[in-house]
């Protein structure tokens, strides 16, 4: 490295929880929902189900000490929980994924069992019954093996190698299925998911080329950002400028930070390899698969029963 080169760009302080972004996304979600859902009881129940589902994911991530965790809402489509952690395990991932739908299904069953005993008012009973059915069906729907639903994420993370060709085929098939469904039911907002999956696929191909060049340069990226040598920071930065279209116009000088240096630093930090601990034995995978399939089959049978009424 040039002896006059600057030290690597300092990492920003970690945010505890991005509540402002979460609140803004919630307000946007409520604004759009108010244009399409006229019944406030229905809107309130759906929002409660969504919050309960995402809160399950959120609390599980907090339990496993994820950083910068937050709940973000997508108008018309739902919500998701984001967070970061360098060392994760398959078991943690399975727990986090299932912590969303399973509590909702269980609460729905409990509500359907007890509501006849807690009210004699027919209108209240109807609302509680509808809420119980919605809890079971919406959370159970999320267990379908279609990416990016929880079932698809569980299949991809625990039972498929995320980096494998089989995983890429699975994600592509999920995108095609969601595209067909969007046109079939004329709910075109659903097309956002296939578009995001297409964007992710292109992004992954770019990152793969970058990672291959970093590896060929002999740079160790199996470390934390704080441990990354200044020299390696500038080497990775040069590779990003060469191969990543987002950074094509960043100043290549090592003697001054570019006005996009914060974004460059974030990308360099993201390239440092996340450690996935393969800690699920065959017996544990069978247990997880059994629980997943049992909940999914129950939901299907429950839905058929409701349809027959």
Explain briefly what this protein structure is:
This protein is mostly helical and 309 residues long. It is built from eleven helices and four strands; from the N terminus they run ααβββααααααααβα.
**Average predicted confidence as pLDDT:** 89
Low-confidence stretches are none
N/C terminus separation: 73 Å
Q: What is the spatial order of strands in the main beta sheet?
A: 1-2
Q: Using only CA atoms, what is the Rg?
A: 23 Å
Overall, the morphology is: elongated
Q: Please provide the count of β strands.
A: 4
Instruction: Write the element-wise H/E pattern from the N-terminal end onward.
Output: HHEEEHHHHHHHHEH
Largest sheet: 2 strands, antiparallel
Number of helices: 11
**What is the SS-derived class?**
mainly alpha
User: How many structural domains are formed by the residues?
Assistant: 3
State the helical fraction.
55-70%
Residue fraction in strands: 5-15%
Describe, in plain words, how this protein is organized in 3D:
There is one protein chain. The protein has 309 residues and is mainly alpha-helical. The protein has 3 domains: 71 residues; 150 residues, no CATH class; 49 residues, no CATH class. The chain contains 11 helices and 4 strands; from the N terminus they run ααβββααααααααβα. The protein has a two-stranded antiparallel ribbon. A two-stranded parallel ribbon has the order 3-4. A hairpin with a 3-residue loop joins strand 1 and strand 2. The model has no long low-confidence stretch (mean pLDDT 89).
């Amino acid at each position: 490295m040039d002896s006059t080169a600057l030290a690597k760009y300092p990492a920003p302080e970690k945010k505890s929880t991005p509540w402002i972004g979460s609140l803004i996304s919630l307000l946007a979600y409520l604004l759009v929902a108010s244009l399409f859902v006229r019944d406030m009881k229905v809107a309130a129940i759906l929002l409660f189900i969504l919050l309960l589902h995402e809160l399950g994911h959120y609390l599980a991530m907090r339990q496993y000490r994820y950083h910068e965790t937050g709940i973000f809402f997508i108008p018309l489509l739902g919500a998701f929980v984001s967070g970061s952690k360098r060392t994760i395990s398959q078991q943690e991932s399975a727990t986090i994924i299932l912590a969303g739908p399973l509590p909702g299904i269980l609460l729905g069953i409990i509500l359907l069992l007890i509501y006849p005993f807690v009210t004699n008012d027919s209108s209240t009973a109807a609302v509680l019954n509808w809420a119980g059915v919605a809890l079971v069906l919406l959370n159970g729907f999320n267990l379908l093996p279609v990416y990016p639903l929880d079932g698809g994420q569980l299949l991809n993370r625990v039972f498929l190698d995320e980096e494998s060709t089989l995983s890429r085929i699975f994600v592509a098939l999920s995108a095609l299925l969601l595209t067909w469904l969007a046109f079939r039911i004329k709910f075109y907002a659903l097309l956002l998911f296939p578009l995001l999956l297409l964007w992710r696929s292109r992004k992954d191909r770019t990152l793969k080329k970058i990672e291959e060049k970093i590896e060929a340069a002999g740079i160790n990226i199996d470390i934390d950002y704080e441990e990354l040598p200044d020299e390696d920071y500038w080497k990775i930065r040069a590779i990003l400028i060469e191969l990543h279209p987002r950074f094509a116009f960043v100043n290549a000088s090592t003697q001054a930070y570019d006005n996009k240096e914060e974004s460059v630093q974030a990308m360099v930090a993201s390239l440092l390899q996340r450690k996935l601990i393969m800690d699920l034995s065959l017996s544990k995978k069978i247990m997880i698969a059994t629980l997943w399939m049992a909940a999914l089959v129950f939901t299907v049978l429950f839905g058929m029963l409701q349809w027959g009424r």
